[in-house]
Amino acid sequence: MTERLTSLSGLAPTAKLPHYDRDALKPGILHLGPGAFFRAHFAPFTDGAIAAAGGDWGIEVASLRTADVADHLNEQSGLYTMLVRDTAGTTAHVIAPILRAHVATRNPGDLLAKLEDPAIRIVSLTVTEKAYGFDSATGGLDLKHPDIAADLADRHAPRGVVGYLVEGLSRRRAKGIPPFTPLSCDNLPSNGAVLKRLVLDFAERVDPDLRQWIEDNVPFPSTMVDRITPASTDATYRDAERLTGRRDMAAIETEPFTQWVIEDHFANGRPDWEQAGALMVEDVSAYEKMKLRMLNGAHSLLAYLGYIGGYEFIRDVMDDVGLAALARRHMNAAAATLDPVPGIALEAYADELIARFANKAIAHRTYQIAMDGTQKLPQRLLEPASEAVADGGKAETYAIAVAAWMRYALGADRNGESYELRDPRAAEIAALLADVPRNGGAVSKALFGLPGLFPAALTDNLGWTEDVANKLEILIQDNR
Ligand code: CS2
Q1: 261, 282, 303: which is the final residue of a domain?
Q2: Is residue 308 part of a domain?
Q3: Is 381 in the pocket of ligand 1 (CB under 6 A)?
Q4: Which atom of ligand 1 lies nearest, measured to the CA of 376?
Q5: Which of 232, 379, 404, 469 is 20 to 30 A away from residue 200, measured at CA?
Q6: Which of 282, 299, 330 is the last residue of a domain?
């Protein structure tokens, strides 16, 4: 069997290697959530920054749930291969700033010790929307979220993201260690501000003085992150092995495009990420809204329509000219809700998105994007739709997207085969729909009643809700 990737020596000449002395690297960042997106985005940006500008910005990662990625990274001394795929071919880059991986569920003390380590100056996060414990109806802490409830009950033995951050900051304060900068890299609008509010809400409940200290001392920069990263498959591992000459169980694959916009507010220094192409700004909100509404909104639209239409990958959906045209129409509608974005022409941005979605070398499953709909819909579709209807617009493509999500939420395809919704509110949705007749009016009425999901600006708009019901009826009919 081929040797495992554990060092940078002896790799095939087709492997692109990092240009810095890895052995001299010291940890400066703790990253929570070492999933594929982090390995395709944050880690290579940091790799590039270290190569260009040095600094003690090695990364230790911690997984709060499953152990496999962390275990694979430790078995490989933190090294892994990033495949960049486009139609011209695939290139393999070995990414090297990860020094160690922790598994919180196995050894929570290890992670807590890292959080109070003065060398750690940034604690970054890619934990997905549902891990925050954010109540989209109030904007504050969701007290029913299992991690939030558990961590409020036992704050010194946390298990969730907010609980760990508050406990880590509390220990640093008690020991006179300067705070780290929490850096959210998840697809939430104003992700830093959201995280700040959750951390402050949590701290207020356990220790109001700590809340004040955090408010006075800890910056929470927001970021806009972008890189399409499908889940790894056997083809990923096979190509990584072919191009590096080493077996790699932590390999990931991604597209050529990458973008990162970061608010430049750090308590304690940061890597020179701009040397690797990041844009440092004062306020990221215009970029975030653009990306969430144009890219992610269109992605969700295509994922739901595509999945229920029998398309496995986004690139297949883009081969359907009607659906590709619809995606473009939706991007235009989303662009109409935006303020100007510095340095970006929205037309050209939309053209580029269409090309990225159509990339034949990227096998991005519609089912992957369809997951966690209740966590994604608000910022991607419902907020811009509310603004569009308030301005007297028709918000038609939003109605299509919502109808497609509702059709998907029925949990059975056109042949009657059932599938798992993969949404934290799946049980609630199933209960709500249990006795509802399968027609557009009844199903949409039931789902519009899902607590806290749809804003009143939409549910009070009869024209729009009827539009959703009619479109949903067509999708349901199509499946009989
Ligand atoms: C996708 C995103 O899975 C999803 O919901 O829309 O992960 C998307 O690929 C990234 O945000 C692109 O940057």
Answers
A1: 282
A2: yes
A3: no
A4: 5
A5: 379
A6: 282
Residue at 53 is within a domain:
yes
Burial pattern 260-299, b for ≥16 Cβ within 10 A else e, equals: bbbbebbbeebbbbbebebbbbeebbbbbbbbbbbbbbbb
299-347 pLDDT, tens digit each: 999 999 999 999 999 999 999 999 999 999 999 999 999 999 999 999 9
Whether residues 445 and 423 fall in one domain: yes
Ligand 1: which residue has its CA nearest to atom 5?
A: 369
Is the pLDDT at 479 greater than 70? The verdict is no
Q: Do residues 54 and 97 make contact, with C-beta atoms less than 8 angstroms apart?
A: no
Range of the domain at 409: 285-478
Give pLDDT tens digits for 150-175. 999 999 999 999 999 999 999 999 99
Pocket flag, ligand 1, residue 72 (CB < 6 Å): no
Q: Is the CB of 244 under 6 A from ligand 1?
A: no
Residue nearest to ligand 1 atom 11, measured at CA: 226
57's tokens: 């910005």
Pocket test for ligand 1, best of 299, 301, 359, 367 (most atoms within 8 A of CB): 299
ipTM: 0.99
Mark whether 347 and 230 lie in a shared domain: no
SS3 (DSSP) at 262: strand
- Please identify, by atom number, the ligand 1 atom nearest to the C-alpha of residue 296: 6
Count, residues in the chain: 480
Span from the CA of 314 to the centroid of ligand 1 (angstroms): 11
CA distances from 444 to 367, 382, 407, 469 (A): 21, 15, 9, 6
